[in-house]
Amino acid sequence: MNFKRKIKQYLEPVINWGAPEFVTFPQNRNDRIGALYKAWGHVINSNLGGAYYEFGIYQGSSFRESFLIYQQYVDWMNSQSNSLELWRQKIKWNFDHHFYAFDTFEGMPENQENKEHFVQGSFLSSFENVKLEGEKIGMYEGDSIKYFKGKFSEVSKQNATNIADLQTAAIVNIDSDLYMSACDALEIVKPKLQQGAILMMDDWNCFSADNNQGERRALREFLEKNSHIETEKYFSYSFTGQVFIVHIKN
What we know:
alpha/beta, Rossmann fold
């Protein structure tokens, strides 16, 4: 069999019937959805309590995707009570995971990144529209769904009491692009971090993966200042994303 025929043979299932299941299975996808499936899979498998924090939600698509993916895991956890295996029936699953969104909803704040796509006002979104789209899938603002509007540094000061009462963090998704925004986001979640929490840095490889810029610099400096916190690389996703597991040293 010549090379071209061999390639055609391997590609035929993809061309004629779509990608095979091992590719399309959600946790095997290498995009943002696949990353969220894996992140929630880790949380559920560990029966880890706590909330999903997202910083920089833009139009809210990943915030909603995370909620929908979590609902699938809720259905799975509920199904375990009907399992024929008694040990599965006895597990006390944690169903109390809240969702918190942080964004200016006025586009990118003033910054020194000197990048055309990060200029002040880019990535503008509507706060009301984000909430409306969330309500369409059952994300009604309340105790378990909260939105914090404004620059992260200002939000942390103006809502200090409310933030202190939020759940610990099970998953933290920092999609803020900018160095200072990532610094501020990390400071907000610092007291919320727990052993085994997932930290998603969506723009990890922006700025040509320069360790002295963007989210890379922010996390490096954060870890240098907080020696009791460590991060372990878990997996990368999409073009620029990197996921970490958080370790808390006693």
